[in-house]
Amino acid sequence: MDIIKEIARQLSLDNSRVAAVVKLLDDGATIPFISRYRKEATGGMDEVSILAVADNLNRLRELEKRKAAVIESIEKQGALTDELSRRIAETTDSVTLEDIYLPFKPRRRTRATVAIENGLESLARAIMKGSNPRSTAGKYINDKVADIDDALAGASDIIAAWLAEDERSRRLVRRMYQRDAIISSRVVKGKEDEGAKYSQYFDFAEPLRRCSSHRLLAMLRGQNEGFLRIGLSIDDDKALDRLCDSFIPSRVPDSYAGFIADAVEDGYKRLLAPSIENEVMAEARKNADKVAIDAFADNLGQLLMSPPLGRKNVLAVDPGFRTGCKVVCLDSQGNLLYNDVIYPTAPKNDTVGSSRKITRLVETYKIDAIALGNGTASRETEAFLKGIRYPRPVEVYVVSEDGASVYSASSIAREEFPDKDVTVRGAVSIGRRLIDPLAELVKIDPKSIGVGQYQHDVDQSALKSALDFTVMNCVNKVGVDVNTASPRLLSYVAGIGDSLAESIVRYRAENGDFTNRRQLLKVPRLGAKAFEQSAGFLRITSGDNPLDNSAVHPESYPVVERMARDMGVTVSALTGNPELAAKIDKSRYVTDKIGLPTLNDIVSELEKPGRDPRQTIAVLEFDESVRDISDLKIGMILNGIVNNITDFGVFVDIGVHQSGLVHVSQISDRCINSPRDAVKLHQHVRVKVIDVDLKRNRISLSMKDL
Questions:
Q1: 152, 158, 129, 160: which is closest to 249 by C-alpha?
Q2: Using CB atoms within 10 A as the burial measure, which of 100, 448, 473, 581 is most buried?
Q3: What is the DSSP string of 228-242?
Q4: What integer pLDDT is reported at residue 455 of this predicted model?
Q5: In whole numbers, what is the pLDDT of the chain averaged over residues?
């Protein structure tokens, strides 16, 4: 199998593009680097397309290894033929390969292997060639085979095993399951009350191919928790008719075919159907996992790319009632300057003392904005903060607390603030999320951020891989200030990783801030390859070279210097000057190594070096009359912010400590395939209350006609 051609065929790409990506990957290039700095080689492929090539490359290489092992095993058995070798070599998927190998696969001891040991295999073959089963069976009675019935039972077991291993039969049944299988779930008797949250699946059935990811994962969770039983079924009679037509040789007389048909039925029900059912169910689970993982990764990407406030001094508040509100003051780099506790809410209601303290802190630390966590007492604290007359312009932003407690108890937080308790660390995290959500959220396990769907039920290895790729993609899109970034943030830069990130931070602490990118080569164990992969994504503000604060890669500095010389200006004068950049004739600088795609990127960076792809932050005003779910009335139209997106709808925070669900059918007046077609995470929306279930603490919302 030509792996390059096979990947190109599967992904509908040119062979040359796939070959270029594979070579770059094999040479140690990272996906962000290839996407950003090797556009000429790939034809401008984005990160997703390059990842698809990388995934298929790994899969097909593993398949080739498996093929080699299969051929070796069959060869040792003396059963390898030219035809078998050819079929194995041409196979492009693992299912077909395993079907081919199944008859040769070493088996555990079964009824069929016992019958073969008893010398009954030739009886089974004779019956399949049309011999009279009973008259032929008499020849096979021995000390291990008591009588004719015993011999026929053994022959039947062998034929049943042949059916279960027959490639054509497996393919036939597999297609029926894939096309026609019904998935059903039933409640475990006596578990009705305990498993009430799965009540919609107590007596449920639908075609498997129509079963959505979230429904399948919900049923599987219910089964794992002991409340449901799940099964797959097809029309067994139709399957048996087709198997008999396919498997029973035409030369077998009708009078003898009944014996084989009984063996086929036994092999189908006992061996083949359960095997294919498990296989198809595993594939359905894998597909459901992929949908859920893709949804989580998409949500995470949107969350990480949330608009930052930027380098501002921030006062952060982690709200609370009895224990008070934790307050911290941070400088524009997110460094902790001060922490305290105020009690503006019940039961103390110290609004006067709390107001004085906040006012003093705003003035003392030149606070530009206030970050307020959206947890318990958030609405009450928000009303208090907005009622204060500040000595300088201050905006109040409500920030998601999801995962802040996880961060505050983490080793990263303990290293950053060894002498502070978890409440202070949590407040710091809230404030830093406002300054730069990406830089702060990378410190938290993505599964704790609250933007997923059944994230604890899916394949954890696949989930981690997808989320790591998403984080890396976002970090490299934005770029990282090498002089302020945490080790965790640096570790996601292309070519860096955990070990080099720690080395960079240690070098920075011992030698002071980096003043140019080339100094990175002085970091222990950061060699030429790591520098090539990472340098374009690392930023140095106020350094020796203005290009070091841009996405222009150091390998392209000579072409920028030539552009500046040709225009009669310095690189500093050209960088950040849109008028001058617009006058550059890019065609003059095309070489065999640098083409127009790279030159377009260079000129774009010269126009606005280090541009942040994230949008500008905006303040959302919740309805002041609504602070609790009990305040909601059907028909109310409210402001909200999207805080999670799933396959079945979106969850919207409307300021009552309980997100409401906008079902997919209530998102848009036009037909949409997915909620992601209409909304984005953290989007500000208008919603209408269409139902409130106080008993179950559920809110149903609509975005239609708004």
A1: 129
A2: 473
A3: EEEEEE--HHHHHHH
A4: 82
A5: 94
Q: Are 161 and 112 in contact (CB under 8 A)?
A: yes
Length of the chain: 706
Dist CA 487 CA 511 (whole Å) = 16
Q: What angle do CA 547, 549, 553 make, to 5 degrees?
A: 55
Sequence-separated (6 or more) residues with CB below 8 Å from residue 479: 537, 538, 539, 551, 610
Token readout for 145 is: 């085979």
Are 626 and 318 spatial neighbours (Cβ–Cβ below 8 Å)?
no
Nearest in space to 483 (alpha carbons), one of 437, 538, 522, 434: 538
Rounded Cα distance between 157 and 150, Å, is: 11
Q: How far apart are CA 230 and CA 219, in angstroms?
A: 7
Residue 554's closest CA among 589, 587, 528, 524? 528
Classify 653 as helix, strand or coil.
strand
Q: What is the mean pLDDT of residues 570-599?
A: 93
- Mean pLDDT to the nearest integer, 316-330: 97
Residue 475 to residue 484: CA distance in whole angstroms:
14
Q: Does pLDDT of 624 surpass 90?
A: no
Judged by DSSP in three states, 30 sits in coil
pTM of the model: 0.87
Kindly report, residue by residue over 28-59, the tens digit of the pLDDT.
999 999 999 999 999 999 999 999 999 999 99
What pLDDT does residue 501 have?
97
Instruction: Output the DSSP codes for 601-621.
Output: HHHHHHHSTT---S-------
Nearest Cα to Cα of residue 601 among 543, 560, 570, 649: 560
In terms of phi and psi (left: phi > 0; alpha: psi -120 to 50; beta: otherwise), the region of 525 is left
Structure tokens at 22: 């594979």
pLDDT at 592 over 90: no
- Is it the case that residue 542 has pLDDT exceeding 90? no
* pLDDT range class, residue 1, cuts 50, 70, 90: confident
What Å distances lie between residue 546 and 108, 363, 421, 516, CA to CA?
A: 69, 34, 41, 9
Task: State residue 657's pLDDT score.
Answer: 82
